[in-house]
């Protein structure tokens, strides 16, 4: 039996990112871009170093946040079931940046909707609310920057989902499942607005990286980022 939870930097990462994006847009080398969202920092500059410092801080905050939450959850279960024992926990980052090396080149890997799947790495691929989730083990595919899909892909925006489905639809789709069934999670209806990650036909070990609804991009540490 698995105890599973999800948490991140709880908006702090978003706030830090937006502040740094605003700084990048004002830098001279970004003034003539066709789209303001293409603004970048240059490696080795004070702005880039400040961004990376805050980035690592937010990711570490997210990791510790999950660790504390899991410790509390385990303690609750232990009080109810004193005989319970636990194995080694799996802490699985997603939507994050990592410093890694491929082909002898030091790079920054941005995994958006993706997790690390290095050889032997344990990871988590959750389904949509009320559907199955998977504990997986990576194969270390360097061609995919040792990445794998994470989570369920979204078929429509949150606002469109809430206009399309009702709480009655939610109750029907999650019948027999102990979960929230209020209007606040209508956009999470399984099989409708979010699709389960079953790219491996239910197998428990990753056989290949699937690019469906996930992105893994790479930038050189010594160049444009």
From TrEMBL:
Any GO BP: RNA repair
InterPro entries for the chain: RtcB, RtcB-like, RtcB-like_sf
E.C. no: 6.5.1.8
Ligand binding (GMP): 94-95, 126-129, 133, 150-153
Catalytic activity: a 3'-end 3'-phospho-ribonucleotide-RNA + a 5'-end dephospho-ribonucleoside-RNA + GTP = a ribonucleotidyl-ribonucleotide-RNA + GMP + diphosphate
GO MF term set: DNA ligase activity; GTP binding; manganese ion binding; RNA ligase (GTP) activity
Keywords: GTP-binding, Ligase, Manganese, Metal-binding, Nucleotide-binding, RNA repair
Record keyword Metal-binding present: yes
Requisite cofactors: Mn(2+)
Record: residues binding Mn(2+): 6, 94
Domain of life: Bacteria
Gene3D superfamilies the UniProt entry points to: tRNA-splicing ligase RtcB
Co-factor note (free text): Binds 2 manganese ions per subunit.
Protein name listed in UniProt: 3'-phosphate/5'-hydroxy nucleic acid ligase
């Amino acid at each position: 039996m698995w105890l599973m939870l999800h948490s991140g930097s709880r908006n702090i990462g978003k706030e830090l990112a937006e502040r740094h994006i605003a700084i990048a847009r004002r830098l001279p080398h970004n003034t003539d871009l066709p789209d303001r969202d293409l603004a970048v920092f240059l490696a080795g500059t004070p702005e880039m170093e400040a961004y990376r410092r805050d980035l690592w801080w937010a990711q570490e905050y997210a990791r510790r946040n999950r660790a504390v939450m899991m410790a509390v959850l385990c303690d609750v279960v232990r009080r109810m079931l004193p005989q319970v024992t636990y194995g080694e926990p799996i802490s699985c980052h997603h939507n994050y940046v990592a410093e890694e090396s491929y082909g002898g080149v030091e790079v920054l890997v941005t995994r958006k909707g993706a997790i690390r799947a290095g050889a032997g790495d344990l990871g988590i691929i959750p389904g949509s609310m009320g559907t199955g989730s998977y504990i997986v083990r990576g194969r270390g595919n360097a061609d995919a920057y040792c990445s794998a899909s994470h989570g369920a892909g979204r078929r429509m925006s949150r606002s469109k989902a809430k206009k399309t489905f009702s709480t009655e639809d939610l109750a029907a789709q999650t019948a027999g499942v102990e979960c929230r069934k209020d209007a606040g999670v209508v956009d999470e209806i399984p099989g409708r607005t979010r699709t389960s990650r079953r790219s491996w036909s239910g197998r428990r070990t990753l056989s290949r990286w699937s690019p469906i609804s996930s992105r893994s991009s790479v930038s050189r540490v010594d160049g444009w980022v």
